[in-house]
Each structure stands twice: as structure tokens, then as C-alpha cells.
Amino acid sequence: MDDATPAAESDPVNPFTQVPIEIVISVGKSRPLVRDLLKLQADSVLPLDRRVDDPVELYVGGRLIARGELQELEGEQAGQLAVRLTEVASLSGGL
């Protein structure tokens, strides 16, 4: 077995290695008053609690698993957003 390949990826007996999971990427939050929310329409701007250069957070099942930076892909996938990970939670203790 290659040292760079995690055991879970190379284990054909473990069916969980083939189950997709959803990762939620959080870029920020907003807490408008309901009266302000009711005024929103096309072209309204809703400010977030983060700046463009701030890290985004990655969640699985509501649990923070990593942080990263938004990037735009190039080549055939130009214009598509991606996340470059800068911090990853350990299996034992989180970030």
C-alpha cells in the first residue's frame, strides 16, 4: 500500500468510503431586522459579517471541519468557485 494513500480509500471492503457527503461552505452571516428583510428585492445588498479576504468555514453535519480561502478555478472550469484549505480539523480535537 502506498504511504500517501489513506487506508480508507484503499479498502474495497468498507462501503462507507464510497458514500458522498455534503459539505456546507459558510462565507458569512447577516442578521437583518424582519422589517429590513421584508424590504429586500432584486439588486438589494445584504451585508455580511465578513470581509472578502476572510477565511470561509467548511461544515459537515453542522460541525466545523476546516477553514479555507475562496478561489476561482481556471482552464475548462474557469469561473467556478473552489476552496483551498488552510486549516483542517484533527480527528481527535477539532480545529
UniProtKB/TrEMBL annotation:
Molecular function in Gene Ontology: cytoskeletal motor activity
InterPro entries for this protein: FliN-like_C, FliN_T3SS_HrcQb, SpoA-like_sf
The keyword rRNA processing appears for this protein: no
Domain Flagellar motor switch protein FliN-like C-terminal intervals: 18-89
Any single Pfam family the record assigns to this protein: FliMN_C
Top-level taxonomic group: Bacteria
GO biological process, one term: bacterial-type flagellum-dependent cell motility
Single GO cellular component term: bacterial-type flagellum basal body
Keywords: Cell projection, Cilium, Flagellum
Family indicated by similarity: Belongs to the FliN/MopA/SpaO family.
The protein's name in its UniProt record: Flagellar motor switch protein FliN/FliY
Native source organism of the sequence: Allgaiera indica
Organism taxonomic ancestry: Bacteria, Pseudomonadati, Pseudomonadota, Alphaproteobacteria, Rhodobacterales
